[in-house]
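Researcher: Structure for this, please.
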Amino acid sequence: MRSSLILVRHARSVPPTPDGPGDYQRPLTDSGKAQAAGLADDLAAREPRVIVSSPYLRAVQTLEPAARILGMPIRTDPQLQEWDSGIVPGPGYERYYEESWAYPRRAHPGGESLHDLTERAIRTLTGLLVDCAGRPALVGSHGTFISRALLGFGCPGIDWDFHRAMPMPAIYHLEIGARSVRAAGPGL
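Model: Predicted structure, token format:
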């Protein structure tokens, strides 16, 4: 029997700044809220068994319109949160990020490696499938988490360029069988 995941990268959010809201509290922008509302009917039509999100506000807000249509709660799971890179946005951040893709087992002090993120993503998403009984799990998360999950499930072409090109929001549909994974979404 095939299992299904609908992975949703959050809509446009307030950019990170040193004096702005922290990662957990960064909300969607007004245009991001409109994007989330625009996704709602499509996501609801997929008839998920469960709706689970990263605890970060922007991920939860992206799924809220679909959850309202479905009359379902959004469960949060800290294992779905974005990559904890161990660095703060600033000069050199993008260079470090790109190097992390080239050397995924390296971790910045206090952070997790991209390899560790991939393992966390696969473990968490596989665990969600156990209780879905043939219906999809609707999962709200973040760009790096989703990129590394796609890579971990064996999707070809997942690299730094793929990650950088991932739109906000983005929807990826994965059909997972005993020996194969089929994926559809932007850039695949």
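Researcher: Any notable elements?
Model: The mean pLDDT is 94. Residues 53 and 140 are 4 Å apart (CA to CA).
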